[in-house]
Design goal:
This protein is an alpha+beta fold and 561 residues long. It has 14 helices and 22 strands.
């Protein structure tokens, strides 16, 4: 088999240092991500993996034109159980280029003749603070990062090298958005261990280790699983070009299912337990702790550098109501809302299965009150596209390939989610019509890119919504024939779950472009006018290295005739 070799562990081998887990894979030694940035503030995220507890570190920030702006002061080597930390830096100047440097101060370097000094720079990068107003804005979007799904003993970085090249040569990208699946804990076992398979294989040892009828058992299990989740981030993000992109431009992120488990929310809790081939109390405890561990690791590696409303505590009672969705703004011209399609996704609910009622209320409040009167457009990030696959795929594929049922239930196009999809689109179309501004929906998830324009000439004649999907940046893409499964041009259909009847709506989706069989990321440029919109896809055939560019001028589709 090409799958990574599983070594069965004894109870005493399950250690907190994770020495047993994928020892052949190199982890991130150090990394900095430029997170949420405003005109006067930046959130810098650091990851440091060090076994030397004598080490201390320091993060410094300078204006590129000279002069130290800020210094963290010395801080100790982070604990392996929590190798990340964030720094909120304020009192910066608008539209100004800054340079950060992460320094290691280690007496070990000098005492072992490694260096004449005891200070070494580990990471360095630059970023620009936000402007007070924007005449134009360029963002870059990507999703689905899995360099280990291609071949045994080989990592293939997909479109990341081209992303780094575009960032350095263009100099115009204001921010990046990772739209989900920034790593895969449930990878396909070609070149990395599927964590859920690992748990199933080692369930007896885990039960012996963490089922001793003490009050700390569940906390210890969750901490252990969180450490396992860390290993995926530390390995998956050890990509030089990825580190260069995230370390030199403000980066925003949202998770999707593969940071937890394939189809999270589309499967029931018991079905996830069945993935472990067991429905006993301990298996249920493992599944519950896996979600808490996934949310904790997601917060540590991704959400902690987003513009969160409140800090994440990792407590189960808080997680049930915690809002991972967030909003931010660039100037007064560009408003963003990033939807969370996993934290409250529950296919057993009677309604609002994808977002939950509370998140939908927050989104609608943002539409009504959160968009600037001076806005040129509003951008919504929906990790799973609202429009992408044809109705034929949702109808026929589950009958042919049952394993794809959860993938389809993840999406707005599945009949169980039509009510929520129609409400979302009606809300967007109504506001776009009211403001006479085009809106943009950015998505990932589906492993092939596409562009649609959504209108409703009957009810909302002034409305225009552009659906742009970019996926996948390094995960193996849908084969080229997948192009024929992408939706065409037509009116949206709704399936009544009770009567099974189909009803055509007045919502119209126009197919603009699509592609399959390539890794990709996209840039979206908003120009002087609200309808000056251009998107460019950077397409890479990762096995051959062949790369091409596809630019689409969307202005003709946005003019109100």
């Amino acid at each position: 088999s090409d799958a990574p070799q599983q070594v069965m562990l004894e109870v005493d081998e399950i250690d907190s240092d994770m020495a047993f887990f994928q020892p052949d894979k190199k982890r991130v030694d150090s990394m900095v991500i430029v997170g949420h940035t405003t005109t006067t503030e930046v959130r810098l995220w650091c990851c440091i993996l060090s076994s030397n507890q004598e080490n201390v570190y320091c993060l410094t920030l300078f204006q590129e034109s000279g002069g130290k702006q800020w210094e963290s002061g010395d801080f100790p080597s982070p604990k392996k159980a929590a190798p990340t930390r964030t720094f909120d830096i304020s009192d910066l100047s608008a539209n100004t280029k800054y340079r950060y440097q992460l320094w290691l101060k280690s007496p070990w370097l000098k005492s072992n003749d490694i260096s004449d000094i005891d200070t070494v720079m580990m990471e360095e990068g630059t970023f620009c603070t936000g402007k007070t107003s924007y005449s134009s804005l360029t963002i870059a979007a990507y999703s689905c990062h899995d360099p280990y799904c291609w071949a045994k003993d080989k990592a293939i970085f997909g479109a990341w090298p081209q992303f780094e090249k575009r960032l350095k040569e263009g100099g115009d990208i204001d921010l990046t958005i990772g739209m989900g699946d920034q790593m895969y804990v449930d990878c396909n076992e070609v070149n990395f261990t599927n964590l859920w398979f690992w748990l199933k294989s080692h369930l007896p040892a885990l039960k012996a280790k963490f089922s001793n009828e003490t009050e700390d058992d569940e906390d210890n299990l969750q901490q252990f699983l969180t450490r396992l989740m860390h290993q995926y981030y530390l390995v998956y993000w050890n990509v030089p070009s990825m580190k260069a992109v995230l370390g030199n431009t403000p980066a925003y992120m949202m998770w999707d299912d593969h940071e937890i488990s394939d189809g999270w929310g589309s499967f029931t809790f018991d079905e996830h337990c069945q993935h472990l081939n067991c429905l006993d109390d301990f298996s249920k405890q493992v599944v519950k702790c896996m979600y808490l561990a996934a949310a904790t690791a997601y917060n540590e590696f991704q959400h902690s550098h987003n513009p969160y409303r409140e800090k994440f505590t990792g407590q189960e009672e808080d997680l049930k109501s915690y809002a991972f969705d967030y909003q931010f703004r660039r100037g007064a011209e560009y408003d963003f809302f990033v939807l969370d399609m996993r934290g409250h996704h529950d296919s057993t609910k009677s309604h609002d299965r994808l977002l939950g009622q509370d998140q939908m209320d927050r989104f609608e409040a943002w539409l009504q009150q959160g968009i600037s009167p001076s806005a040129k457009t509003a951008i919504v990030v929906s990790p799973v596209p609202v429009i992408h696959w044809s109705h034929f795929v949702s109808k026929v594929l589950p009958k042919v390939q049952a394993q794809y049922v959860d993938d389809l239930m993840d999406g707005w196009e599945h009949p169980t989610n039509h009510e929520a999809r129609n409400k979302l689109l009606d809300d967007l179309l109504a506001k776009s019509h009211e403001l006479e501004l085009p809106f943009v929906v950015l998505s990932g998830d589906v492993h092939c890119p596409s562009v649609f324009v959504v209108t409703d000439p009957t009810r909302f004649p002034n409305a225009r919504i552009v659906q742009i999907t970019s996926s996948s940046i390094s995960r193996k893409p849908v084969p080229p024939l997948g192009y024929y499964a992408i939706a065409g041009t037509g009116n949206l259909a709704t399936v009544d779950l009770k009567s099974k009847t189909h009803t055509k709506s007045t919502v119209h989706h126009q197919f603009i472009w699509g592609k399959a069989g390539v890794n990709n990321f996209c840039t979206v440029r908003f120009g002087e006018s609200s309808i000056d919109l251009e998107t460019t896809f950077h397409l890479v055939k990762s096995l051959t290295g062949e790369s091409t560019i596809k630019t689409l001028n969307l202005r003709p589709y946005l003019e109100i005739k």
